[in-house]
Amino acid sequence: MYDVIIIGAGVSGCAVARELSAYKRKTAVLERSSDVCEGTSKANSGIVHAGYDAKPGTRKAALNLRGNILMESLSKQLDFPFQRNGSLVLCFEEAGRGKLEELLERGKENGVEGLRIVEREELAVLEPNLSDRVIAALYAPTGGIVCPFGLTIALAENASVNGVEFHLDTEVNKIVKIEEGYRLETSKGVFRTKVVVNAAGVYADVFHNMISGHKLHITPRKGEYCLFDKTMGGYVSHTVFQLPTKYGKGILVSPTVHGNLLVGPTAEDIADKEGVNTTASGLETVLERGEMSVGHLPAGKIITSFAGLRAHEEGNDFVIGEAEDAKGFIDVAGIESPGLTCAPAIGEYVAGIIQDILPAERKEDFIGERKGIFGMWEAGHEERKKMIHENPAYANVICRCELVTEGEIMDAIHRPLGATTVDGVKRRTRAGMGRCQSGFCAPKVVEILARELGRDIGEITKAGGNSGFLTR
Asked: pLDDT digit string (tens) for 208-237?
């Protein structure tokens, strides 16, 4: 019998797990994929929102501001990439100034600091590549960018080090209320727990509706993106939004923490909870609308495109809390934008709910810090010499595009919740994220995984399941 079981190892589930790992409870995370961060958490904008967009008084507004504040200190504690680069919301016509003013006042009411409206002359200095159509913008200096999988993996590793069990490749099929709590029937057997945390993304409504008469409906909202190579990374320095519509914040143009340029997402409500395919029309929309903000976006500089699903709930707010008719069942549902920003605050908030339901003492030996994977690409000359002296594998470059070495890949495999797939290595080290998109390094990564895991090379997959590289 567990004290708490979390369904879903996305950023929200891992943030809750990390907070709970500080207490003397038996806690587990069940994840149907072969790794953490396999769903929405790996396919989003990587934006740390300032907090001017959410309606005052909503959970989104409160958790956005708190999450933004927590992100910087958390990035230092857990060693993941974060930059406070500031954001701009662009206005293209005089008729839109009213909406810009409305966002300004909303942000002030939410407690966002430093907001102001910037006119065309100053914008030309802040962002020289902005389109001539831009007449003014809302400037938010507290906006930032983060590596979404870096954040999620850091939270998960730290939770694991502090005793949280992660059961991967474990799909929850059924939840049944029992006297002691809940019975979870999974692809890997039966689990029993006193408390369930439902952090299942677009599937959160499925699990909620298994045990509650107050039905929940989550709509998958697909967003398509284009990622440009690092020659475009300095095209803008701030995260550049457009005035939002009823479907969200529109197409953004932003640098990434790794030096690329990201443009997207679209917003399309679909029925398929697995519908992460890109489309020619969607990517065309990304480029057309992106060029409203920054002028020309050269398609030849695109190195990949991808799509993610946002878990949209009809009430337009997060659904977080104990279900009214299912004691001990806690929803963390409808976590769409600004969910990534809110994750640290969601972790705090849900941990507080659980402390009220199932009080526990805080651990005296809780480990609050974590060191990430050493990166040769960002290291100085002396640091590189030192690492190569200690382990010659750091001299063997595997991914030339991103300068990732064998030593880094070995670290990614053998650390807590280490990589077991090529995509797992990719998210932890960036091997395969460069211009060639794994064209040259994938075979070498497969060989290293097989060797270090003691497996046949035919067992190594791209992302678990049936995604093998070799057939017999």
From this structure: 999 999 999 999 999 999 999 999 999 999
CATH number of the domain located at residue range(s) 376-459 in this protein? 1.10.10.1100
| Per-residue H/E/C for 82-130 | EECCCEEEEECCHHHHHHHHHHHHHHHHHCCCCCEEEEHHHHHHHCCCC
The 10 Å CB-count burial string (b at 16+, else e) for 337-376 is bbbbbbbbbbbbbbbebbeeeeebeeeeeeeeebebbbbb
For position 245, what pLDDT does the model report? 56
Q: What is the mean pLDDT of residues 245-256?
A: 77
pLDDT at position 248 over 60: no
Q: What is the pLDDT of residues 419-453, one digit of tens each?
A: 999 999 999 999 999 999 998 999 999 999 999 99
- Residue 5, beta-bridge partner list: 28, 196
Count each helix (H run) and each strand (E run) in the chain, helices first. Answer: 12, 22
Distance separating alpha carbons of residues 302 and 466, to the nearest angstrom: 28
Q: pTM for this one?
A: 0.97
Place of tokens 């003397």: 24
The answer to whether the CB of 386 falls within 8 A of the CB of 173 is: no
Largest Cα–Cα separation, the chain: 66
Please give the average per-residue pLDDT across 387-399, as a whole number. 96
Kind plus residue range of the DSSP H or E element containing 420 = none
Bridge partners (DSSP) listed for residue 329: 196
Domains of the chain by residue range = 1-82+145-217+314-372, 87-141+221-307, 376-459
**CA–CA gap between residue 352 and residue 408 (Å, rounded):** 37
1-82+145-217+314-372: CATH architecture: 3-Layer(bba) Sandwich (3.50)
Catalytic annotation, pick one of 49, 208, 238, 258 = 49
Q: Is 214 a catalytic residue?
A: no
| Strand extents, DSSP E, 239-348 | 239-242, 252-255, 261-264, 268-269, 302-313, 319-322, 329-333
Is residue 149 classed exposed, middle or buried when 0-12, 13-18 and 19+ CB atoms within 10 A define those classes?
buried
Express each pLDDT in 111-161 by its tens digit: 999 999 999 999 999 999 999 999 999 999 999 999 999 999 999 999 999
CATH 3.10.25.10 fits 87-141+221-307, yes or no: no
Collect all residues with Cβ–Cβ distance below 8 Å to 313 and sequence separation of at least 6: 216, 217, 218, 219, 319, 333, 334, 336
